[in-house]
Amino acid sequence: MRDAKALAAEFRSLVTAALQGGEPDAIPEEALREVLTAAVKAYAAKAEAHGEFPPFEPDVVTATETVVTACAMIRAADLNLFDMAMWFRRPADDRRGNE
After folding, report:
1. First-to-final CA distance of the chain
2. In the chain, at which end, N or C, are there fewer CB atoms within 10 A of the end residue's CB?
3. What's the pLDDT tens digit per position in 65-96?
4. Which letter does DSSP use for residue 55 in this model?
5. Contact indicator for 81, 36 with CB cutoff of 8 Å
6. Alpha-carbon gap, residue 23 to 17, rounded angstroms
């Protein structure tokens, strides 16, 4: 099995090149969907097991990029802001699976 860090670096390199070249369409939607789905599932599992941690390094993702992606994910999961408020207010102990 290939190293996850190496695969992530390879994907990041492809994305960086596409975005710097002004060609976001060079990243197929299906590939992006598969990577994002896997990343979200992995993040949620680790956060539930061990507590939340920053999903990306500071100053790497803009506020606009964060909100655009979060809104798309909220819509895709058929959630609304009321649903989000309930989860956001969940005590930290509940987020670690210690319910």
Report:
1. 35
2. N
3. 999 999 999 999 999 988 888 888 776 655 54
4. S
5. no
6. 8
Q: Which burial class, exposed, middle or buried, applies to 10 when counting CB atoms under 10 A from its CB (0-12, 13-18, 19+)?
A: exposed
Where does the chain show beta strands of DSSP type E?
none
**Cβ distance 70 to 80 under 8 Å?**
no
- pTM assigned to the model: 0.80
Asked whether the beta carbons of 50 and 96 are under 8 A apart, the reply is yes
List for the chain the helix, strand, coil content (%; round to 5). Answer: 70, 0, 30
User: How is residue 53 annotated by DSSP?
Assistant: -
